[in-house]
Amino acid sequence: MTNATVVQIVDAIALRLAAITQDNGYATNAGARVYKGREHIGDDEFSPEAPDALTVLWDGEQKISELVGCATVNLAGDFAIVAWLMPQDPTTSAAAIDAIVRDAKRALFRADADPTLTTITSGFEYMGAYMVPRLDGLRSARAALELRVTWRDALDTTP
Q1: pLDDT at residue number 62
Q2: Percent of the chain scoring above 70 in pLDDT
Q3: Rounded-to-integer distance, Cα 21 and Cα 5, Å
Q4: pTM (2 decimals)?
Q5: Higher pLDDT, 152 or 91
Q6: CA 125, CA 112: separation in Å to the nearest integer?
Q7: CATH numbers and ranges of domains, the chain
Q8: N or C end: fewer C-beta atoms under 10 angstroms in the chain?
Q9: What is the CA 102 to chain-centroid distance, rounded?
């Protein structure tokens, strides 16, 4: 494990999610649109050709999980993957969101996934998922997956 930054971790998570396409054997094409740091995707950004998307967010908090030396720490932080969907039929949105959540879990934890995430972190755990209620006036549905990631950081790094 090398020292890592939050940006590198978000990039590595996004890289794994980008593999989610039906051509790669997944149920959805949610990996065709993976955004980093976006908290919201508007209804006007969906179309029949692009009915779903994923966003990767960091909650902004790092906690020291272990002091490795006087200037190196292991950090832990929570990251969220938000699955967005504009259902063609609102009565099937729960099943469609569930398919995206299952695809995201598979992409993150499959043995043959891009190794960057496991190289720059000491571990990442699936902490759960939940459906997010629709916002007033929006037709899109969403769910969030939570990950706990631990990584090493050198406190004395100079620019």
Answers
A1: 82
A2: 87
A3: 28
A4: 0.86
A5: 152
A6: 17
A7: 6-154 (3.30.2000.10)
A8: C
A9: 12
